Amino acid sequence: MATEPSTQVDPVSAPDGGPAGELMTDFSSPGATATSWADTLAVLQKAEIFWLSTVRPDGSPHVTPLITVWADGALHFCTGPTERKARNLEQNPGCVLTTGTNRMSEGLDVVLAGVARRITEDHVLQRLADRWACKYEWHFEVHDGSFWDSEAPSEGSPADAPAAGEAHVFQVRPRTIHAYGRGEDYTSTRWTFEDGASVKA
């Protein structure tokens, strides 16, 4: 009979009042401590690429890399309304966003699971567009509840043929976040958020 993994609440993981993580002791080195929220938040804010996992209508997985910004206690990404990930989210908004390294001896991988919700308020989109510009120097116009990229190729057009491109913006508030640390110790830390509650950012 399967048993639940052992956990240990790390009392010092959130000295600034952020959420406290649970150390998954069955998947961590002996004597290890939970990854701090500050270190995990830094990855959520600074990682340039995340991998988005969604579910196709036939139940098979779909995974694609994309860029994100962290704001208002959530990850945000954008995609064309006819792209596969957007169509998947119409049927099933549950998704997972993952980032990290491919090194065995160092790094911190972060996995955020939640439900994607489209953002359509122009004043919120403009604030997010400003963050995209600051982080990636990628400038979107905002109107009609979407991002608009005048330099994006439209779907089905040659890659070198610029055309006006609409992008829907999605917000994913975490239901769970897992952080997997490698180095002197291996650590597995979990945060759980009830009903997608806001995360201190």
UniProtKB/TrEMBL annotation:
Gene3D superfamilies associated with the record: Electron Transport, Fmn-binding Protein, Chain A
Regions that span the bilayer: none
InterPro entries given in the database record: F420H2_bilvrd_red/Heme_oxyg (IPR052019), Pyridox_Oxase_N (IPR011576), Split_barrel_FMN-bd (IPR012349)
Record bears the keyword Oxidoreductase: yes
Compositional bias annotation for Polar residues: 1-10
Region (Disordered): 1-31
Oxidoreductase is among the record's keywords: yes
Domain Pyridoxamine 5'-phosphate oxidase N-terminal, first and last residues per copy: 42-178
Name of the molecule in the record: General stress protein 26
Keywords recorded for this protein, A-Z: Oxidoreductase
